Amino acid sequence: MVKGQHAQYLCLCTLDTNLICKKMCAEMRSKVKNRIIKVIISLCFILLAIGAVRGDYFSVIDVLQKSVGYDNSRSVEKMQEDFDAFLNQIFIDSVSQDTLTMNYTLKNKKIYGLDNMEVSFGNMDFDEQKGTYSVYENMMETLRSFDYDKLKEEQKICYDLAEYMMKLNLESSKYPDFEEYLSETSGVQAQLPVLLVEYNFYTENDIKDYIKLLNLIPEYFNNVIKYEKYKASKGTFMSDTCVNLVIKQCNAFVKNPDKNYLITTFEKRISGFANINDTDKQNYIAKNRDAVLNKVIPAYKNLVFGLESLKGNGKNNGGLCGFKNGKKYYEYLVRRKTGSDRSIKEMEILIDKELKQAQKKISEIIAKNSKIYDSAVNVKYKYTEPNEVIKHLKSAMKEDFPSLSDDIKCQVKYVDHSLEESLSPAFYLTPAIDNYNNNVVYLNGNKKYDLSKAFTTIAHESYPGHLYQNCFFYSKSPVPFRSVVNKRGYSESWRTYAELYSYKYAGLDEKTAEILRENTIATLCIYAQADIGINYNGWSLTKLAKYLMAYGFDIEQSKTVYNSMVSEPANYLKYTMGYLEIEQMYKKAEKKLGKKFTPKKFHEYILSIGEAPFSLLNERLDTWIKEQSRG
Fold it and tell me: Cα(204)–Cα(273) distance, rounded to whole angstroms?
């Protein structure tokens, strides 16, 4: 998953001591903006298939209904057997709906009979997709044909997850005109090049499929434009400001086409195939170049042309609440992206409370020792070399986190020079579920990123963050279905939580580490409040600027934040609410268990459940607490 910079800049908070921390500059703006780029990479690549963005994880109901019966009198063994078949069919349907999803999910496709699938970007017919909501209703009926009490505990979790996702999918039918596929950072035009340049070449057939994909991009983008025209007809098309952000990015991608990184990186990527002779390699290189220059680049230019023609159709220059039913859609979007069932009002109260606590802690620390301020602003980490950082983290975290097996491998690689301007300071791409023990953390060596201060960023991506969380879960051999249930709120929450927890291992003075941690929490809360303010409460740029002024933002910085929130509603919120949900569970367990509470056991509970909505995690937490109390 692409990881945006989250380096240490002292909080943009007004302190009780009247010290206003104004270490907000271009880096700070890009840091939070870049965090959003994480949205798609990893299992979020599913979002690149338009059907999947709409929640079409379960679309072969006819096959499923033939695979399992409705007989509720089935024996326990038969019920469990049929339920496993049901889940497996959902998995197969989900990963086979588009080639990108397949490539990022499975290394050995033959096991599932998926080695000869047609290359595609998935179903792009929006008219057909309108009929999928009845499919969800039928799927829900099939799901409920299983006797919940006859299922194993792990199957019950899967049942709950499937039910939760189906309800979200059905709810999405109320908002057919709101989905957005083009946005500054998480839009398909932004994410597609990164996914393509990191497309897995396991075999020669993967190279062939990749080139076929490149040739399909014009049709793919034509369908995206078709949908944007549909949105324009319904009055939900984006503002010209948002259009310009997307166009600017597309124009940057097509600049210097002969040096486009899809061309410059390809030869190196296929050089390791010893079983492909030089003649065939040169043939693939030529085909790739031709596809990029004559298909991909023109497709991006055509996308720009299509968007230019739609300018002026955006009737709302503000947040989602400026649209009819926009507030209701935002409530739905927040649930979908955060995994939290709290109301917006409850979120606002929790976020505001956490922000005030962070400000208070920072103020108290500086009041006792003003030198801590300078120490935090000019922080120097004891561990700076990436491999050294990872080695240290793996050792330091043993007391607080369950161990992983020794066969988990992690390489640190630097992104190709041609990609440095396009990528974030660090990212981790989730490996295929049948290849989870081979991992790579990518770092960006661009001079604009100070990797000597990337300690917590590396922790976010490796240990105890994304890599660790992913490997821990898949080391437990979960059913494949779990890989297609993508609760982004859970995944982002764990990584943010791990990043904040890693300050404990940073080798810093205790108070310096604490102030940096609280600074990060406060920053997350500020952006979350701005997200809600703009998209739910209708804040204007003037009102946002007034709010942010107290934290050291100038008007230009406020404009950047405003445009980002309008372009990416609820994206900032998922980092903050996800972290706060885990933190609330931690405090609850710690309070109820007292001396019997240990961070390691709590972390094991969260990690073992895997990606799930927080309602499910909280519900099972009560059972876990009772079990720990008896232990």
Answer: 8
> φ, ψ for residue 627 (rounded to 5)?
-65, -40
Of residues 1, 22, 12, the one with CA closest to residue 496: 1
CA pair distance 335, 161, nearest whole angstrom: 14
590 by Cβ neighbours in 10 Å (0-12 / 13-18 / 19+) ranks as middle
Host H or E run for residue 435 = none
DSSP track, 131-195:
THHHHHHHHHHHHTTS-GGGS-HHHHHHHHHHHHHHHHHHHHTT-TTT-----TTTSHHHHHHHH
What SS3 class is residue 95?
A: helix
DSSP SS3 for 411: strand
* Plot region of 42 (φ>0 → left; ψ -120 to 50 → alpha; else → beta): left
Number of other CB atoms surrounding residue 240 within 10 Å? 16
Query: What is the distance between the alpha carbons of residues 292 and 213, in angstroms, rounded to a whole number?
Result: 11
Contact 569, 538 (CB under 8 A): no
Average pLDDT of the chain to the nearest whole number: 86
Question: Order of strands, edge to edge, in the sheet holding 426-428?
Answer: 2-3, 426-428, 438-443, 409-414
C-alpha 156 chain-centroid distance: 25
Q: Please give the Cα distance from 470 to 43 (Å, whole number).
A: 11
What interhelical angle do 599-609 and 571-593 show, nearest 10?
130
pLDDT for residue 71 is more than 90? no
Name the band, by pLDDT with cuts 50, 70 and 90, for residue 70: low
Here the contacts of 54-57 (C-beta below 8 Å, separation 24 or greater) are 54/129, 54/132, 54/169, 54/172, 54/179, 55/165, 55/168, 55/169, 55/172, 56/97, 56/123, 56/129, 56/132, 56/169, 57/90, 57/93, 57/94, 57/165, 57/169, 57/484, 57/485
At 431, the pLDDT band (50, 70, 90 cuts) reads very high
Residue pLDDT, tens place only, 475-510 = 999 999 999 887 678 888 999 999 999 999 999 999
Cα 456 to Cα 228, 384, 516, 551: the distances in Å are 39, 10, 11, 23
Residue (of 631, 460, 455, 376) closest to 42 by Cα position: 460
Asked if 516 and 490 count as a contact pair (C-beta separation under 8 A), the reply is no
Interhelix angle for 153-172 vs 76-95, to 10°? 50
The single residue listed with the structure tokens 């929006």 is 126
